[in-house]
Amino acid sequence: MNIKEVPPGTEQASESLGDSEGKVEAQKVVFGFRTMLIATLGLLLAAGGVCSALQGQDASPTSSAEKSPEDQTDVLIARVESAMRALKSKVMSSIEEMEDEQLKKDLKVPFDVIGRNEANTDKNKLRFKREVLAIGGHHISDNPYDFLYELRDIDDGVAAYAHVSRTMILGKSLDPDNLLDCLVIYHETRHVINDTHFRQGIKSDAEFAAYMRFFTRREGEEKMVCVDDEFTAYGIEIELLNLMLDGALYDAAVSGPPVDPEEVRALLNARTDQIGMIKLLIEFSEVYYPNGMNENGVYPRAFVNLVAANYRNLGYSLYINTGKGTQVPFQTENY
Ligand SMILES: [Zn+2]
After folding, report:
1. How far apart are CA 238 and CA 265, in angstroms?
2. pLDDT by 10s per residue, the chain, length 335
3. What is the radius of gyration, based on Cα positions, of the chain?
4. How far does residue 18's CA lie from ligand 1's centre (Å)?
5. Distance, CA of 259 to CA of 240 (rounded, Å)
């Protein structure tokens, strides 16, 4: 059995800066944990190129109003998977041309994880809860990268990742025809991958409980974030955006002309209310490049400090993973 109790409270979700608090109901089931533990122990894209023209913020399927939430989720999952397949095919040749083998691999993995999860028959969380959990079943998979999707309201954002139940939360405003939204999905998928790797470092039930506890927020408790999880997610997000912009972010950081956020917004088919997120990514890229992540997995100090400062400004207490399922407070000096 892989059913475990987690402490009562609110599952904390990792989301992009500018997103909502991402509160999620505590789940009583730890999805896929036993599978994980067993495994452990053992260019600008031409506008409209990937996506069709934005049809407005309510670009949802016309029949969705009559569909059940479970069926609506199926529709959105299929659109997300299709959009990510299209994005992958657009950037793959640029990825293949890169010289840095580690970066090449890191850029491909999120696409592969989403692609493999297409075959996960339990990925629709509502259906999984109704058809499997309700009759006492549990998820069985050999793939430790499997995750769930759930469609729900997110106040100010399009997607988030909830570690406790390994759920990618798709906000109701998420538009797979919007490349910035696809980029957010890509960022959140890096959290899925990091979560798998963090779990693979866990060696005991106590460490596992501590890991679950970290991502469960009780009433009145501080907001916490593992910033090392965010450094990697933003790092790879910037790398992909740079490829999508044909190297413009890198060039701007080195010597080129500054990147115009409005131009990026138009190219990504993003909404006007997403300009803040675009500006933030550009700002991050200015300190991420020219070095980016080095061969030891270390990020530029100015990038680390800037990402950390943004979370601190949002009222988060910052932590880093120890690699054993536990977290310690982040300080510039200890990272
Ligand atoms: Zn994140």
Report:
1. 15
2. 222 233 445 666 665 564 433 333 333 233 334 333 333 222 323 222 222 222 233 334 455 558 899 999 999 999 999 999 999 999 999 999 999 999 999 999 999 999 999 999 999 999 998 887 777 777 777 799 999 999 998 877 899 999 999 999 999 999 999 999 999 999 999 999 999 999 998 999 999 999 999 999 888 889 999 999 999 999 999 999 999 999 999 999 999 889 999 999 999 999 999 999 999 999 999 999 999 999 888 999 999 999 999 999 999 999 998 877 788 999 876 67
3. 19
4. 10
5. 15
CA–centroid distance, residue 15 to ligand 1 (Å): 4
Direct distance between the N- and C-terminal alpha carbons of the chain, in angstroms, rounded to an integer: 37
Q: Cα(141)–Cα(164) distance, rounded to whole angstroms?
A: 17
Listed in sequence order, the residues at least 6 apart from 224 whose beta carbon sits closer than 8 Å to its beta carbon are 12, 214, 217, 316, 317, 318, 319, 327
The separation between CA 40 and the C-alpha centre of its own chain, rounded to angstroms, equals 22
| Interval between CA 335 and ligand 1 midpoint (Å) | 18
Closest Cα to residue 236, out of 150, 112, 135, 124?
Answer: 112
Residue with tokens 């100010």: 156
Asked if residue 238 lies in contact with residue 22, where contact means CB atoms within 8 angstroms, the answer is no
Cα–ligand 1 centroid distance for 82 (angstroms): 22
Nearest-5° angle of CA 181, CA 93, CA 294? 75
Angle (CA) 196-325-110 rounded to 5° is: 20
CA–CA gap between residue 167 and residue 148 (Å, rounded): 5
Hey, which residues does 169 pair with through a beta bridge?
150, 160
Expressed in angstroms and rounded, the spacing between residue 126 Cα and the centre of ligand 1 is 23
Task: Let me know the angle formed at the C-alpha of 91 by 108 and 146, rounded to the nearest 5 degrees.
Answer: 35
pTM above 0.90, yes or no: no
Contact 182, 87 (CB under 8 A): yes
